[in-house]
Amino acid sequence: MSLPQPLVVHAQMLIRRPAAQVFGAFVDPAVTTKFWFTKSTGPLEAGARLQWEWEMYGASTQVVVKALERDRRILIEWNDPPCPVEWKFEARGENATFVTIETSGFRGSDGEVIDQALDAKGGFTNVLAGCKALLEHGVALNLVGDHFPDRSRQKA
């Protein structure tokens, strides 16, 4: 059996906050660092080239912002070779936003592609859940930092 090409992964979540606030949480690293990466060289802006870091893991990635539509869509490429990641923000009334994150570009054997896809699905689901908890309840769950405690430089 051969996997469909390209294999596309979706993660989605309803966040009970206005689209502008949810979009801003992903664009502004002062907010994003509370639920995803720990450092960024700047905010997401169309054409920007940034570096994101997960200091607890000693990991980083280069990010290129390919498109940005205020309160509606973000498209980046990251990793090497470049993989696209797209966020779509759909307002659901005045106080809720349905966020979908889509990624593809997985490479390797079928088994490696499946592992990468499952990791992406789980990772982006954690990111959305962390964003939801922060925006709806003011709670930083540290989901990303606690996902691989044995790999963390900051042992529990």
Give structural attributes:
alpha+beta, Alpha-D-Glucose-1,6-Bisphosphate, Chain A, domain 4, seven-stranded antiparallel β-sheet
Order of helix and strand elements from N to C terminus: EHHEEEEEEHH
How many individual β-strands? 7
Taking the alpha carbons of the first and last residues, their distance comes to: 42 Å
Which word captures the global form? Answer: globular
Number of helices: 4
CATH architecture: 2-Layer Sandwich
Molecular structure report:
The chain is an alpha+beta fold and 156 residues long. The chain has one domain: 2-Layer Sandwich (Alpha-D-Glucose-1,6-Bisphosphate, Chain A, domain 4), CATH 3.30.530. The chain is 29% helix and 31% strand. The protein has a 7-stranded antiparallel sheet with strand order 1-7-6-5-4-3-2, covered by helices on one side. The model has no long low-confidence stretch (mean pLDDT 94).
List the helices and strands and how they pair.
Layout: E1 9-15, H1 19-27, H2 29-32, E2 39-40, E3 49-54, E4 59-69, E5 73-78, E6 83-91, E7 97-103, H3 110-137, H4 143-147
